[in-house]
């Protein structure tokens, strides 16, 4: 398989998880990571992949690198990931989707550019996942679920059939969402919560 060179935009904890998945796929060769000024010194923490610059250097890097991927994490807010993703689009980088070889992604689902599926996640038939999303380890996206752009579905979360998650929402680890429930935009559903009713935009939810 011919590998394609790619740079990662983000150089902290989530980037290490992205590296694990990308290296297990074997389709892309990681050429370096682009961080903030604070991240620039974290070379060894990225498993030997050098931090080659900071995000203000991206207009220069597009002349040298074709592929880029947002590897910044998302918990409290999607705004950093959204800004970086939109910047890559404006600069005309090619932004792939990355699928762990240990995840299951139905051929009858739709996953858009910039999304990553981590190890042992499942996206079932009829599901739709938007751009620049994180489908984290062991997350289950059941049939006919819609996850809009810039969402993070965290480790072990279960989204049952027909659930809809609005743009920019964070679903915490171990969250269970009843079938057919609609979650609004820019919500935070905290770890371990069980959601049985719709949530309005911007809602922060916990039930423990």
What does this molecule look like?
There is one protein chain. The protein is α/β, with parallel strands linked by helices and 208 residues long. Helices cover 14% and strands 28% of the residues. The protein contains three helices and 22 strands. The strands form four sheets. Strands 5-8-11-14-17-20-22 form a seven-stranded parallel β-sheet, with helices on one face. The mean pLDDT is 93.
Summarize the structure.
The protein is 14% helix and 28% strand.
Map the helices and strands.
Blueprint: E1 4-9, H1 13-25, E2 28-35, E3 51-54, H2 58-61, E4 67-70, H3 79-91, E5 98-99, E6 104-105, E7 110-111, E8 116-117, E9 122-123, E10 128-129, E11 134-135, E12 140-141, E13 146-147, E14 152-153, E15 158-159, E16 164-165, E17 170-171, E18 176-177, E19 182-183, E20 188-189, E21 194-195, E22 204-205
Parallel strand pairs: 1-2, 1-4, 2-3, 5-8, 6-9, 7-10, 8-11, 9-12, 10-13, 11-14, 12-15, 13-16, 14-17, 15-18, 16-19, 17-20, 18-21, 20-22
- SSE-based structural type: alpha/beta
Rg from Cα: 17 Å
Topology pattern, helix = H, strand = E: EHEEHEHEEEEEEEEEEEEEEEEEE
Main beta-sheet annotation: 7 strands, parallel
Instruction: Calculate the terminal CA-CA distance, rounded to whole Å.
Output: 49 Å
- Uncertain regions spanning at least 5 consecutive residues: none
Strand order within the widest sheet? 5-8-11-14-17-20-22
């Amino acid at each position: 398989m011919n590998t394609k060179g790619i740079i990662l935009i983000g150089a902290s904890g989530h980037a290490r998880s992205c590296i694990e998945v990308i290296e297990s796929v074997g389709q892309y060769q990681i050429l370096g990571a682009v961080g903030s000024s604070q991240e620039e010194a974290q070379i060894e923490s990225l498993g030997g992949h050098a931090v080659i610059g900071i995000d203000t250097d991206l207009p220069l890097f597009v002349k040298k690198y074709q592929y880029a991927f947002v590897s910044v994490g998302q918990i409290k807010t999607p705004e950093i990931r959204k800004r970086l993703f939109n910047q890559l689009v404006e600069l005309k980088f090619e932004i792939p989707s990355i699928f762990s070889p240990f995840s299951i992604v139905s051929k009858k689902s739709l996953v858009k550019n910039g999304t990553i599926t981590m190890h042992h996640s499942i996206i079932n038939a009829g599901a739709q996942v938007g751009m620049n999303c994180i489908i984290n380890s062991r997350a289950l996206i059941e049939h006919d679920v819609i996850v809009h752009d810039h969402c993070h579905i965290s480790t072990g979360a279960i989204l049952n059939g027909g659930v809809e998650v609005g743009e920019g929402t964070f679903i915490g680890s171990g969250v269970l969402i009843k079938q057919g429930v609609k979650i609004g935009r820019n919500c935070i559903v905290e770890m371990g919560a069980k959601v049985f009713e719709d949530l309005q935009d911007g809602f922060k939810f916990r039930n423990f």
